[in-house]
Write a structure and sequence with these properties.
single chain; 429 residues; alpha/beta; 5-stranded parallel sheet; 18 helices; 10 strands
C-alpha cells in the first residue's frame, strides 16, 4: 500500500546498457561501495534494472556490480506514446528521438516499471530531458550525475557516508570533506587563510565557506531528495505529497544563498580595508558598490554585467518573497483537458462505474456527502501537468512572473559558485 507520509527506501533506476559499460570501472569503484552500504546498513535499496534485450552486456565482469543489477531479457515493445506537446517540441528540436529504437525502448521500460529515472549517456534523451520530465515525469539522469543522486538519497535518509573515506563521517564534516567545491574551499581556508589573514577576514571566510556554504548544499540535496518523493507519488496518482517539505528546503536554500551574496561584500570590506560600515554592505547596496568600484573595477563590471545582474535580481525576488511575503511553495501548474471540463453529472455517471462497490455499500446520504470530493479528485487527475513545481513571484510594483525553483536550484547554485569564485580570486589571489 502506498501512503503519502512514507519516506521511500526503495528506488528503481533503468540503466542504459552502453552507458553502464562505458562507466563500468568508475561505477564499480565509486558507486558500488556506496550502494552496498546503503543496502546493508540502512535498508535503502536502489535497484538497477539493466535491459539485456537492448544491448549486449557480455563485457560486464565485475561480480559486485552484477549483484546490484537486475538483468532482464525482455520488456515492453519499443513504443512510447509521447504527449502531443512533447511530440511537437521534439519534431522541432530533437526529431530523431521519435524514431530511435534504443531510446524508445528505455522510455517504454521506465514507464512500465514506474522507474525513478533512466541513467544514460544518450545525447537524444539528455537533450530532451526537461520536456520529458515536465510532461511525462520521466527523469533522465546523465551518467555523470548518478553518483550525485546516490549521495542525495543517502543524505535524505541521514546517511553521511563517503566512499573516499570508507565510512560514515557525520553531517558536521560531510560537505567540507566530500563535496567537490566545499572541500576545496575548506582546504584553501585552512592552508592559505587561517592564521595568515587578519582576524575579521579569517572569521568571515570561515563562517561563509565552512558553515553557510554547507547549509546551502544540504538544502539543495534535501530539495532533490523530496523531489524524488514528489515525483514517485505523482507517478502513483498522489499529486500533492511532500510539497511542504520541498517548500521548506527551497526557501531555506534561497535565504541562505542571498545571505552568501551579502556575506561576500562583508568579506570584501575587510579584505580591502574599506571605510564603510557592515550595515551598508550588500550585493545590491549602492553605497558598497560606489566605494568598491574604486578598488576592484573588474569585479564591479562582472557583477553588474547583464547576465549576473539579472540573476541577482531574480535571487532578490526569491529572497524577498520568502522573508517578507507569502512563503512560496512550489505547486503543480495544470491545464484543463476535455475530460476535466466534463460536467458533474457526466462525472457522476463515470464514477458509478469506477466506484461501483462504494455506491453499493454507502447509503444515499453518505454518497451525497462524499461525491463532491470524488468529483474534484477525478477532475484533478484528468488535468494536464504543464509544470511540476511553479511559484509566482510578485514584484513590489505589482507585476510578476512564474518560476520553477526546484528545476532551477542547480542552475542557481552554479551561478552562486561562479560569483563566489569571482570575489575570492579578486580579493585573495
Amino acid at each position: 500500500m502506498i501512503t503519502g507520509n512514507s519516506i521511500i527506501k526503495d528506488f528503481l533506476f533503468v540503466f542504459d546498457p552502453p552507458s553502464l559499460l562505458a562507466l563500468q570501472d568508475r561505477f564499480s569503484r565509486e558507486a558500488v561501495p556506496a550502494l552496498m552500504h546503503l543496502r546493508e546498513s540502512s535498508g535503502i535499496t536502489t535497484q538497477l534494472v539493466l535491459p539485456r534485450y537492448i544491448f549486449d552486456i557480455s563485457a560486464l565482469k565485475d561480480s559486485k556490480l552484477m549483484k546490484l543489477l537486475k538483468v532482464i531479457t525482455e520488456g515492453p515493445p519499443p513504443i512510447f506514446n509521447f504527449d502531443k506537446v512533447v511530440a511537437k517540441r521534439l519534431r522541432k528540436d530533437c526529431g530523431e528521438l521519435l524514431e530511435s529504437k534504443r531510446e524508445l525502448a528505455l522510455l517504454s521500460l521506465s514507464e512500465s516499471m514506474v522507474a525513478d529515472g533512466i541513467v544514460t549517456g544518450s545525447k537524444l534523451l539528455i537533450q530532451s530531458q526537461y520536456v520529458l520530465y515536465q510532461y511525462h515525469r520521466i527523469r533522465v539522469i546523465p551518467v555523470d550525475e548518478f553518483l550525485d543522486l546516490i549521495s542525495v538519497i543517502a543524505v535524505g535518509n541521514s546517511v553521511f557516508w563517503s566512499t573516499a573515506y570508507a565510512g560514515d563521517i557525520g553531517f558536521d564534516a560531510f560537505y567540507q570533506m566530500t563535496h567537490w567545491k566545499a572541500s576545496r574551499l575548506f582546504k584553501w581556508w585552512a592552508r592559505s587563510i587561517s592564521g595568515r589573514e587578519k582576524k575579521e577576514s579569517v572569521e568571515n571566510l570561515r563562517a561563509a565557506l565552512l558553515n553557510r556554504f554547507p547549509y546551502i548544499l544540504y538544502s539543495r540535496d534535501m530539495v532533490r531528495f523530496y523531489q524524488l518523493h514528489r515525483d514517485y507519488y505523482i507517478r502513483n496518482n498522489q499529486r500533492q505529497m511532500y510539497g511542504t517539505a520541498i517548500g521548506f528546503y527551497i526557501n531555506t536554500f534561497y535565504l541562505m544563498l542571498w545571505g552568501m551574496l551579502d556575506h561576500l561584500t562583508i568579506i570584501a570590506k575587510h579584505a580591502r580595508d574599506m571605510r564603510i560600515s557592515e550595515r551598508y554592505c550588500g550585493i545590491r547596496s549602492k553605497d558598497f558598490w560606489k566605494e568598491f568600484r574604486k578598488i576592484e573595477n573588474g569585479l564591479y563590471n562582472y557583477i553588474k554585467g547583464k547576465d549576473i545582474s539579472d540573476w541577482i535580481n531574480i535571487m532578490a525576488d526569491m529572497r524577498h518573497q520568502a522573508a517578507h511575503s507569502i512563503i512560496p511553495i512550489p505547486s503543480l501548474l495544470v491545464n484543463e483537458t476535455t475530460d476535466s471540463k466534463k460536467s458533474d453529472d457526466e462525472i457522476i455517471e463515470i464514477l458509478k462505474n469506477e466506484k461501483s462497490s462504494l455506491y453499493r455499500i454507502f447509503d444515499s446520504q453518505t454518497i451525497e456527502a462524499l461525491q463532491p470530493s470524488w468529483i474534484a479528485d477525478w477532475k484533478w487527475k484528468k488535468m494536464e501537468i504543464v509544470a511540476p513545481g511553479m511559484i509566482r513571484i510578485t514584484k513590489p510594483d505589482g507585476t510578476g512572473y512564474m518560476r520553477d525553483p526546484v528545476v532551477s536550484v542547480d542552475h542557481d547554485l552554479s551561478n552562486l559558485i561562479a560569483v563566489m569564485d569571482a570575489f575570492l580570486v579578486k580579493l585573495f589571489n
